[in-house]
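We were asked to recover a plausible sequence for a given structure. The inputs and outputs are reproduced exactly as logged, with field labels preserved.

PROBLEM: sequence recovery
POSITIONS: 630
GIVEN STRUCTURE:
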């Protein structure tokens, strides 16, 4: 075997025949390629047979790619502010249905621009509870006709379509994430969140639902981690106001990278949750308080609408947008998370009685800028005598006289010092005016040291001695929480399944409970109180808007999207100033805006506790020290 020769077929053919076969093979290859390159009209209907079916294979590929689409109708989402777009840029009115698939809003894609749905649509969530947990949707053969030819009609050859014009259109979805302030409480972060949502809507950007920070431990006790949006509010409700996406989805779509950061004002470096790559603050766009000029979505669009960065982070969002309509519009679409609603229902039934009418009072201690100066009794006043910078002017002549003299001692702001007896009288009078005998009393005073504890105990005991039922969730020995003499215990009161509740969640339950009251008295300078005021005012305005639409039949009230559009656009036109903190006036006053007055009648049936207990008691035996320097 070692001497055997390997036999090959070519050894039996003469060299001349091998050369001939090679030449014929080369001719066949060149002919086939040449036939394929010629147009069909040159050879008639027999071209497919002449080139051994190569053209049929090509026509199958071209026909499949040009005539088949993903089974679901992925159309573009209407811009929240259609009026700001040119007519040729207005999106399709037949928007992707949020109710039919996911609480997340659909990206703004044109259906004709893509052959498959964008990744953001494939990542939409749908857990049925309005939660924003990210989960990918797998395309099945039933939803993608390009994956199977079974049962399809025979494909015939067709000319290769002419090439499309070489116009590059960026149809990618654009995202905006709020970069919240980690050093402030949940109330301030919520104002940042709301401002960011309005900006995202105005710019037609998808709003990323970033998690909240825990905030200072003095606010809610020691909370290990902040709550997610879906732990606070329903995602599906917010998506009716602006397009939203889960935080995980945004991170994936943006490849964990922020292309730019926008600052409404100079801010400290934020704690970046989830983002791996991002510019420094000194490389960011800084509006330097010029957003104070904004009094409409159109103003936002004029300032930032031309920016092309796909994924941006927005910071410096506190104290928030200048005009009240921004907060009223989004407040109309805030629905508490199902768990918060259920807990509020349980607490209301146990502590108040399901059908009991009650007055809600929020007495905030920590927000007092007076520090050691009579904590819980000292409240800031803006230079026009208002509780907040919205025109709630003081009725006291003493205030206006004192305000003429600038404060030059013990600080830089003016304030009022309340008397506990005036607080009691103001609460009792408000309860009598609304014919209620039950009060839900929310306060952080029991967390503010001996002076705060003493005040809370004295006020609660005094109101009870005056024949009023007072309930609340303080934890003070010797001061029962409920009318049956029992003290609050989360497990016994709310159920064993709620042992994991933290201070932030309990605060949300209380906030929902006070929003249901017949009347509400809040504390000036508190974002917690201001949020309740805005939600309650938004609800009243929504009723007025719907009633007006019923009278003039201008909107089909059976169309939920038409109603949402009417509500949001009407509320956004409220240009009343909505500044919160008096100390920011020196920045906000650089822009002249509509300085309409927000009166007590505008807030009715609600009121500010410190205003009613100070300026409101003048002429009624009040003891408040007006316009004191601190």
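RECOVERED SEQUENCE:
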């Amino acid at each position: 075997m070692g001497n055997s020769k390997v036999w090959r077929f070519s050894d039996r053919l003469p060299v001349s025949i091998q050369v001939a076969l090679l030449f014929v093979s080369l001719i066949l290859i060149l002919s086939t390629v040449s036939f394929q390159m010629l147009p069909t009209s040159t050879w008639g209907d027999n071209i497919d047979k002449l080139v051994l079916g190569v053209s049929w294979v090509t026509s199958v590929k071209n026909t499949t790619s040009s005539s088949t689409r993903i089974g679901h109708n992925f159309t573009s989402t209407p811009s929240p502010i259609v009026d700001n777009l040119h007519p040729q840029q207005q999106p399709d009115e037949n928007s992707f249905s949020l109710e039919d698939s996911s609480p997340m809003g659909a990206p703004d894609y044109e259906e004709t621009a893509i052959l498959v749905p964008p990744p953001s649509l494939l990542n939409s969530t749908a857990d049925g509870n309005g939660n924003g947990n990210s989960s990918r949707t797998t395309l099945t053969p039933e939803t993608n006709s390009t994956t199977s030819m079974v049962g399809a009609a025979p494909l015939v050859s067709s000319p290769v379509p002419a090439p499309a014009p070489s116009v590059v259109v960026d149809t990618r979805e654009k995202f905006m994430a709020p970069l919240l302030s980690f050093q402030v409480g949940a109330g301030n972060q919520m104002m940042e969140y709301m401002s960011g949502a309005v900006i995202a809507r105005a710019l037609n950007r998808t709003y990323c639902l970033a998690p909240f920070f825990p905030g200072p431990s003095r606010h809610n006790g020691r909370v290990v981690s902040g709550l997610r949006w879906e732990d606070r509010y329903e995602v599906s409700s917010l998506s009716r106001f602006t397009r939203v996406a889960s935080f995980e989805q945004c991170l994936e779509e943006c490849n964990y990278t922020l292309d730019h950061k926008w600052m409404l004002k100079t801010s400290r470096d934020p704690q970046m949750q989830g983002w791996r790559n991002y510019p420094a603050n000194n490389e960011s766009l800084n509006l330097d308080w010029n957003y104070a000029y904004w009094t409409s979505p159109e103003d936002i669009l004029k300032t930032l609408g031309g920016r092309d960065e796909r994924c941006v982070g927005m910071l410096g969002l506190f104290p928030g947008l200048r005009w009240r309509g921004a907060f009223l519009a989004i407040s109309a679409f805030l629905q508490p998370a199902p768990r918060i609603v259920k807990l509020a229902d349980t607490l209301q039934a146990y502590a108040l009685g399901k059908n009991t009418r009650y007055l809600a009072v929020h007495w905030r201690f920590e927000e007092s800028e007076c520090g050691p100066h009579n904590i819980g009794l000292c409240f800031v006043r803006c230079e026009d005598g208002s509780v907040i910078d919205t025109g709630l002017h003081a009725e006291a002549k003493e205030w206006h006289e004192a305000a003429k003299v600038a404060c030059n001692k013990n600080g830089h702001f003016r304030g009022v010092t309340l008397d506990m007896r005036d607080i009691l009288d103001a609460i009792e009078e408000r309860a009598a005016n609304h014919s209620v005998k039950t009060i839900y009393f929310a306060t952080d005073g029991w967390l503010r040291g001996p002076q705060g504890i003493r005040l809370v105990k004295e006020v609660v005991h005094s109101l009870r001695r005056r024949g009023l039922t007072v309930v609340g969730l303080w934890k003070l020995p010797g001061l029962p929480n409920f009318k049956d003499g029992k003290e609050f215990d989360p497990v016994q009161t709310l159920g064993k399944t709620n042992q994991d509740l933290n201070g932030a969640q309990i605060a949300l339950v209380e906030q929902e409970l006070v929003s249901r009251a017949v009347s509400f008295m809040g504390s000036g300078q508190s974002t917690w109180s201001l949020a309740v005021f805005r939600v309650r005012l938004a609800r009243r305005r929504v009723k007025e808007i719907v009633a007006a639409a019923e009278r003039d039949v201008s909107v089909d009230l059976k169309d939920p999207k038409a109603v949402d559009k009417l509500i949001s656009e009407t509320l956004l036109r409220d240009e009343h100033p909505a500044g919160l903190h008096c100390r920011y006036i020196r920045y906000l006053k650089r822009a002249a805006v509509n300085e309409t007055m927000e009166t007590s009648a505008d807030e009715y049936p609600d009121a500010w506790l410190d205003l009613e207990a100070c300026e409101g008691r003048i002429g009624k035996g009040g003891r408040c020290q007006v316009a004191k320097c601190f």
